[in-house]
Amino acid sequence: MVIPTGTIIEEDELFTNIDEYASLEFDAILVLGGGVPSSPTEPPTYVQRRCDSVAKLMHALRERSSSTIPSVICLSAGTAHLPQFITPHNGLPLWESTASAAYLMQHPEYPVPEQYVFVETTSYDTISNAFFTRSTFTDINGWRRLLVVTNEFHIHRSKAIFDWVFSTTREGNDSSTANYELFYLSCNNVGLSDEAVEARRSHERRGEKNVVENLATKYTTLSGVLEFLTTSHDFYTANKLVRKVWIPERRGVGTC
């Protein structure tokens, strides 16, 4: 079976034909975050489903002596519009990726050995997931064949974003693309009502359209993506962040 780059693989299809997909020999598996954990070892239920699929896949690959064992990168510091979970014993924020990593390492059926697990702790949405994964992990480590894992309701916008960011050209002496091969795992939607899933799908369709029709055509280099993040994105643009926390009284509002 020939599996073209860019294929969206359904969760059930993956495990029905695991030998075929194991032959892809992924360099890394990217587990997208998505929501505030309920404890240091419990990401949201739908993110747990992503982790369950990855844990099961890693177990299957490790059982095959001929298989390349990929690294697993758990993504996301937090969600931009939600307050973060504060760890009770030290008062520090819990990164979403940390909760996913802990869940994988302590998985009840298929624990993933810690030497395979990494965390990305800078991103706060799917676009920054892609940018910081590429700029801090995959470009540096030479990981080029990647499996991006999320739920069905999120898969198409995620694909549009990762296809865009990972196909952008690099500057300097290398103006070529990084020659990535991306594949996508669509996990079943769990832990959300039918109404919530449909609402998310509607939001995702709008976001996907914006990526394909606007962002991907305007920002075609990796530095261009950084320009977008630091001049237009609500969570990475300095003046936008300052305005969110600025106390009016300190600007002299209402004083003479």
State the gist of this model.
With 256 residues, the chain is an alpha/beta fold. The chain is built from 9 helices and 6 strands; from the N terminus they run βααβαβαβαβαβααα. The N and C termini lie far apart (75 Å).
- Low-confidence regions: none
N- and C-termini, Cα separation? 75 Å
Query: What's the multimeric state?
Result: single chain
In percent, how much strand structure appears in the residues?
A: 5-15%
Identify the overall geometry: globular
Rg calculated over all Cα atoms: 19 Å
Largest sheet: 6 strands, parallel
Provide mean pLDDT, rounded.
92
Entry keywords:
256 residues, alpha/beta, six-stranded parallel sheet, 9 helices, 6 strands
What does this structure look like?
The termini are far apart. The protein is built from 9 helices and 6 strands; from the N terminus they run E-H-H-E-H-E-H-E-H-E-H-E-H-H-H. The chain is an alpha/beta fold. It has a 6-stranded parallel beta sheet with strand order 1-6-5-2-3-4. The mean pLDDT is 92.
Give the SSE layout.
Blueprint: E1 8-10, H1 11-16, H2 18-22, E2 28-31, H3 45-63, E3 71-74, H4 96-105, E4 117-119, H5 126-141, E5 145-151, H6 152-165, E6 181-187, H7 194-218, H8 222-231, H9 238-245
Parallel strand pairs: 1-6, 2-3, 2-5, 3-4, 5-6
